[in-house]
Amino acid sequence: MTSRARILFVVGSLLLALAFVLPLWAVYLQAPQYPEGLGMLIRINDITGLKPNDIDNINNLNHYIGMKRIVPESIPELRLMPIIIAALMATGLAVAALGRRWLARTWVVLFAAVAIVGLVDFYKWEYDYGHNLDTENAIIKIPGMNYQPPLIGSKQLLNFRATSIPAAGGYALIVSLALGVVAVVIDWRRKSPAPALARRAVRPALQM
Prior knowledge:
The chain is an alpha+beta fold and 208 residues long. It has 6 helices and 5 strands.
C-alpha cells in the first residue's frame, strides 16, 4: 500500500473512536402537543432521550397504542456494538501497519457488510416495535394501523411526524468507511507498473 493509503486507513480507523462518545442515530417526534418535540438518541451501548424526560414520555405514548417499552438493557445489539466497532478500529490500524492490499480490501468489504447488517437489524427492530402491538391493552386502537418509524427520512404517524436520521457518530462511521474505500482506490490506481514492463521486455526475448 502507498503511504497516502496507509494514512487514510489510520485516520479512518481513529474516526471510529467518535462512535463511543457521540450518538449513532437519532429519531425525532414532532406533534402539536409537544411543541419542543421529543427525541431518542441511539448510542453505541445505550438509548437516551434528546432531553432528560424524552424516553419516559415516548414510552408513555407507546403504552397508549400498545407498543413495547424501549428498555436499552433488553436490546442485545447494544452489548455487541462496542465490540464490533473496537474490532474494526484495531483491524483498520493493523491494515495501515502491515500495508497489505488484500487486507485493506477485506477490511472495506467487512465494514460495508457490518453496516448493511446493522441497517437491516435496525429496520427489523423498528418493524417489531411498530407492528407487534399489545392491542388488547392499548387505549387507542386503529385497525390496520402500524407505528413503524422510517429507517431514514420522515413519516407521519397519526398526529406525530417521525424523522429518523444518522447522528454525529453515525456520520463518523460513514466517513470512516468512505476513507477506507478511497484508500483502496488510490492504492489500486497507483500500483507499480514494473510487472507489466517486465512482461513486455520478456516477449521480444522469447521471439528471438
